[in-house]
Structure formats: structure tokens, C-alpha cells
């Protein structure tokens, strides 16, 4: 699913934002209000950055790191090297240095590509939009150079001082800007109840399998203890086995419900993406829906 952090229509809805975005685009040679051009830019840059992190230097650095780390432990066990400290321990240092050099070079190249050029300009655009009160639907983790789990990235969206909204604002064609008339923009589809329910339970669960396994192990352990120690009371632990089955069934029901609601949520995100492509201004998505964009 392709959903931009902010649409061109939203950027054109405020003359001050449009002017700032136009100036940023002029520096980088791209029209950031052109949704097709921005989509192509983000798609190409994401693929290039991902390929860079899987390139030959990464494999070389990883292999050198692995061999350098295990060599001092493996080499002394080889009879032909056991009595030769230079061969048994000497290669580890150069290999680790090679690994550090290769991985550092990859990181430097990756960060340079991330923090320069049109991507840097686009982050400026997002910062300007946010400062003027234009909601960002989401900010992809890769665009800020952070992991999907969160944390501060290598290239966060710039934070600019908050700008108060204008009292009234209608552009003209002669200004190179035309604000839409009220009601002219397509509307974002209302969020169905099923999607709201998915947002509520998206992060719930995940413990049923582990709990069921522990209950089965507890029941089996009690039965073994009873059989080997001649203490029939231990057989009472077998009641944990049907309890484990009930836990697994509950987890299965929850999983099926989450899958059903997830399909509804994906359909809603697709509808929101289509509305944005048609010019609608899309509000910020919830964390649960933002995760669907990464799938």
C-alpha cells in the first residue's frame, strides 16, 4: 500500500507552506507537491538504501567479523596450529579491523545517501508541514533512518517553530497557487467500527501459545513426578492439560478475529490511500494502521 506522509493537495492548501515547499523543491530539482514524483522518489530511494545494506561490503564485513571472533577459539584446537601462537591468534586482529572498516564504510555511505539530496529536502517539507499544523499520516521508519521498533533515527524530521494558522487564505492562479474551494476536495472515508476494534486489539494476545506449552509441561511434569515418586497427588497436575487446550482455543479464536479485522483495516487503509491520491487531506494514522503500511 502506497500512502504518502502528506499529499500534494495538503501542501497546497496553505499558501505559506506551498511557497516554502516550492523553494525547497527548487533547490533539489523536484516538485514535492507532485504525488507521483514523490512516490517514485521514495520507492527508488528506499530500494537503493535497502540494497546498500545488503551489498558485498556488508557480507565481507560480516564474514570477517565472524571468522575474527571465532578464530582464537578454534585455531588452538587444530594440531598444526596449536604450537604456533602467531597463526593461532594473529589473524584475529586484522580480520576484526577489516570487519570494522567494511561495516563502517557501509554505514557512512548509507547515512550520506539518507541525509543528502532529495530525501533531505523531503524531510524539510515534512517539517514545514508539521510546523504549519498539517497532519502527517505517518513517517516511514526508513526515511528517518530508524528501526521499525522505534527510537531516534539517523535523520529525524526537522523540528521548526509552530506557525499560527492564517485568518483567511485564498490564492490566485497568478500567484502560482490555487487553494481549493470548501468541499472541493474528496473526503477521507469514515473509519468503520471493525477498524476501530482492530486498532484496539492489534497488539493484544501473543501469549496463548507460550502459556499453553507451559501448562502442558506442568501437567506432564506432575504426572512424571507422581509416577516416579509413588505420590498419586501429582496426577492432579494433569488438569493443566485440558486447561492448556482451552487457552490454545482462545488464542485461535482471537487470532482468527484479528485476521478478519486486519483484512477490514487493510481495506480501509487502501481506501484512505485512494482518497489521498484523489486529493484528500488524510489525518495521522494510528500506530496499528501505520504497521500495516510496512507489510
Features:
mainly alpha, 12 helices, 295 residues
Straight-line distance between termini:
8 Å
Mean pLDDT: 81
Number of helices: 12
Strand content: under 5%
Topology, number of strands: 0
- Which sheet architecture does the biggest sheet show? none
Rg estimate, integer Å? 28 Å
- Helical content band: 55-70%
Structural account:
Helices cover 61% and strands 0% of the residues. It contains twelve helices and no strands. It is flat. The longest helix has 38 residues. Helix 2 packs antiparallel against helix 8, helix 4 runs antiparallel to helix 7 and helix 10 packs antiparallel against helix 11. About 5% of the residues have low confidence. By secondary structure, the chain is an all-alpha fold.
Mind sketching the topology for me?
Blueprint: H1 8-12, H2 15-28, H3 35-52, H4 56-74, H5 79-82, H6 85-89, H7 92-115, H8 117-131, H9 193-201, H10 208-229, H11 240-277, H12 287-293
Helix pairs in contact: 2-8, 4-7, 9-11, 10-11
Q: How would you summarize what this structure contains?
A:
It contains twelve helices and no strands.
Amino acid at each position: 500500500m502506497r500512502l504518502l506522509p502528506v499529499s500534494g493537495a495538503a501542501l497546497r492548501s496553505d499558501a505559506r507552506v506551498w511557497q516554502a515547499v516550492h523553494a525547497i523543491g527548487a533547490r533539489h530539482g523536484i516538485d514535492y507537491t507532485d504525488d507521483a514524483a514523490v512516490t517514485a522518489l521514495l520507492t527508488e530511494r528506499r530500494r537503493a538504501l535497502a540494497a546498500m545494506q545488503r551489498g558485498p561490503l556488508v557480507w565481507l564485513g560480516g564474514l570477517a567479523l565472524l571468522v575474527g571472533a571465532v578464530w582464537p577459539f578454534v585455531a588452538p584446537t587444530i594440531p598444526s596450529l596449536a604450537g604456533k601462537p602467531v597463526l593461532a591468534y594473529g589473524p584475529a586482529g586484522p580480520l576484526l579491523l577489516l570487519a570494522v572498516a567494511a561495516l563502517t564504510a557501509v554505514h557512512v555511505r548509507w547515512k550520506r545517501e539518507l541525509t543528502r539530496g532529495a530525501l533531505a529536502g523531503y524531510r524539510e517539507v515534512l517539517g514545514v508541514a508539521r510546523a504549519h499544523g498539517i497532519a502527517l499520516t505517518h513517517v516511514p521508519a526508513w526515511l528517518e533512518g530508524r528501526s521499525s521498533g522505534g527510537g531516534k533515527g539517523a535523520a529525524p524530521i526537522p523540528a521548526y517553530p509552530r506557525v499560527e494558522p492564517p485568518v483567511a487564505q485564498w490564492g490566485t492562479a497568478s500567484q502560482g497557487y490555487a487553494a481549493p474551494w470548501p468541499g472541493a476536495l474528496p473526503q477521507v472515508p469514515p473509519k468503520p467500527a471493525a477498524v476501530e476494534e482492530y486498532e484496539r486489539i492489534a497488539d493484544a494476545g501473543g501469549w496463548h501459545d507460550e502459556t499453553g506449552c507451559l501448562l502442558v509441561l506442568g501437567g506432564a511434569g506432575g504426572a512424571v513426578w507422581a509416577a516416579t515418586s509413588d505420590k498419586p497427588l501429582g496426577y492432579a497436575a494433569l488438569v493443566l492439560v485440558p486447561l492448556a487446550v482451552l487457552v490454545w482455543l482462545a488464542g485461535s479464536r482471537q487470532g482468527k478475529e484479528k485476521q478478519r479485522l486486519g483484512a477490514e483495516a487493510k481495506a480501509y487503509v487502501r481506501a484512505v490511500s485512494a482518497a489521498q491520491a484523489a486529493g484528500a487531506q488524510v489525518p495521522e494514522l494510528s500506530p496499528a494502521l501505520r504497521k500495516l503500511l510496512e507489510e
